[in-house]
């Protein structure tokens, strides 16, 4: 048995939202630490809220190490792949257009059925010759 799915919508109760935020933040920090330790990679995070009472939190806790990672990122020669919201919607649009083309093709095939399978593979010229012979 798995966990029940949580609806992805803002939590209305302030107390519950802060509690959930702190629990998930600690989970993210633990995951970042595990990733850095197990895979021997540099990981950094900045966690910030609009709430003035909650201070920003950084990982790794040493600000010098974080600044080193930020400088390394800025001077990276490899272009960073960014997938922004616009890219997400463009991908969705392209997938929907592909599905629409497939559906239209299926509709045309269903509408104009041929009883003879050999006609499907004939070029247009041969099909026109066949149509002329049928008219005669």
Automatic annotation (TrEMBL):
Keywords: Coiled coil, DNA-binding, Nucleus, Transcription, Transcription regulation
Molecular functions per Gene Ontology: DNA-binding transcription factor activity, RNA polymerase II-specific; protein dimerization activity; RNA polymerase II cis-regulatory region sequence-specific DNA binding
InterPro entries reported for this sequence: TF_MADSbox, TF_MADSbox_sf
Cellular location(s): Nucleus
Keyword Glycosyltransferase: no
Entry keyword Zinc-finger: no
Name this protein carries in UniProt: Putative transcription factor, MADS-box
GO CC annotation terms, alphabetical: nucleus
Principal location class: nucleus
Species of the source: Helianthus annuus
Ranges in a coiled coil: 86-113
